[in-house]
């Protein structure tokens, strides 16, 4: 679908990818990732923890074969949202981070979130994607809305006030069709 190029994902390898991720998550544009002061060892340790977790997975997103974004998916019954909402069968949680660049491409971040959603919905068991961005992250709220997310309510997580939002497969398809 994307005229911007080809997007693929591969499992993140913390020992191999930590240096790259460290540059991304400590960049000023990644403030909402909450790792601004992280050391390289901190980033590697965090992604080793995720790699070992049964219900949380991290992927390196590639654009035309080059690292371009980070994608995480998680089971909200066990990670991130436990006790904060009533999960439904087929729910999957998602985080994504686009790599900082000195040469922004118009529409790139929207193409990335679309590729992330396509990847998540490629699993037929996934019925709904759940996100919980910081209430102040207006840019991500707009991107989420563009791919079909509907905000439900604000919730308090230990690290932030978040906007709990959902996107069903049908909402995503409708948003994708409207954008075409």
UniProtKB/TrEMBL annotation:
Pfam families: Acetyltransf_8. InterPro entries: Acyl_CoA_acyltransferase (IPR016181), Acyltransferase_MbtK/IucB-like (IPR019432), GNAT_dom (IPR000182). The keyword Acyltransferase applies. One of its GO terms (molecular function) is acyltransferase activity. Pathway: Siderophore biosynthesis; mycobactin biosynthesis. Keywords: Acyltransferase, Antibiotic resistance, Transferase. The keyword Amino-acid biosynthesis does not apply. Residues 7-170 form the N-acetyltransferase domain. Acyltransferase required for the direct transfer of medium- to long-chain fatty acyl moieties from a carrier protein (MbtL) on to the epsilon-amino group of lysine residue in the mycobactin core. This is Lysine N-acyltransferase MbtK. It comes from Streptomyces thermocarboxydus.
